[in-house]
Amino acid sequence: MNKKRKPQIEIEPKEFKKLGYRVVDQITRHLSGIRDVRVTNALSPRQVRKLLGTGPLPRKGMEPARLLTQTSELLFKNSLFNGHPRFWGYISGSPAPVGILGDFLASTVNPNVGAFILSPVATEIESQTIRWIAEMIGYPTDCGGILVSGGNMANLVCFVSARKAKLGWDVRKQGFHGSQGKRYWIYTSAETHTWIQKAADLFGFGTDSIRWIPVDNGLRMDVSALGRRIKDDLAEGGVPLMVIGTAGSVGTGAVDALREISAVCKEHSLWFHVDGAYGAFAAVMPDAPDDLKALSLADSVAVDPHKWLYTPLEAGCALVRKTQDLIDAFSYHPPYYKFEGEEGDEPTNYYERGPQNSRGFRALKVWLALRQAGREGYERMIGDDIRLAKHLFDQVKEYPELEAFTNGLSITTFRYVPSDLKAGDEKAEKYLNKLNEEILGHLQHGGEAFCSNALIRGKFVLRACIVNFRTTEEDVEALPDIVVRIGKKLDKKLRPMEFGQ
Ligand SMILES: *Cc1c(COP(=O)(O)O)cnc(C)c1O
User: Fold this and answer.
1) Residue located nearest, by CA, to atom 8 of ligand 1
2) pLDDT for residue 499 is more than 90
């Protein structure tokens, strides 16, 4: 072997600086012009594959300068930008610039936040971030917690903690062999995000163990129906385990009656989990509704910094009231780990609090954003998003061809209804679903603005969810006109086909 090693992957400091500045220049150009580009150019998979080429792994490497220039061009010309002021699809936050720089910094230090000894500062930054997140949403700050990849993982971590705490045998050792044929029940509403199916499936219950509780007119869990269902299940010898409430449903932003659900859980000693992936951060508002204040009553809460804290993907956070419940659900002590500290000054080792072993420094971007904006900054930004969604709702009502449906937190739903079409009968409703689905497709491919959809009592509606600090009044005011324009054009084409006129 050569005495002097020249690893292909190394970049000398002078060169690194040049490359780094160039990348930062390209990022800056992208960010400063983001308002003037389309939200997406909606390439098909085949078009993207063509851009990348289909050749095998290159035998020879490439100059990093050319590689990085090519790559930033590829990305900035062909991506969907959720940082665009008119991106309101699904629930994705606009990434905070300080988080972008944070990821750069985090990768440089590259701490392994599985164990304190490998990541002293990063571990404590993560712990502080978790405490601040709990504080923001009014949850006890001495809770256990861990940052994970997103809302799904945060909910799964809480679910596993509930499973361990509530099943009456050692499920981690025996699995469901210990169940002695009993039925175990998990209660939630049909508005719950699909993570619940994944959780019931992955952790041994099966999706048949989910009791889908009906919702009221506001799409909130019907708490008296919940109480009745639990009593019926008990009478039949079943074992109710946990109830999942939602703080900000993914469809319409509905917040369940958390205080009342908590009382039902207390009465029957059930674990009370709240999925606050989207909506929990709205609890920071001084005028937050009482149901959001009741987050403090939950045994566990899942939140999603990459939504309303505007941190770049990926960042979710699981909070579990009793730290020991989290540790009991995940900790093993293999003989090859020697991570104990001194009495009274014990280290936090995050590998014991979640499914991951090696873990990245995802806390840094969250911590930086929290410190840059502060509590007041978030009150203002989240408040503005909520006001803008309400403004959109009010705008939509002004248009005779638009039917406003719901406005909850920062989600507004509506649909296009041609002025000369009478909604209500079955055929017209079927047509309206089809028409609005087509409108959404055109909207998502057009790049002028980006929405997604919800299905409300069988009706397909357009849905704008604003978790975007770049969105302005002018942006939301543009949406109704865009939808009406697309709707008119498509109706002209589709109606004769549908109604045979
Ligand atoms: C977004 C969302 C999830 C899933 O979160 P991911 O970050 O996409 O994994 C779960 N529940 C609710 C209510 C959500 O809004």
Assistant:
1) 151
2) no
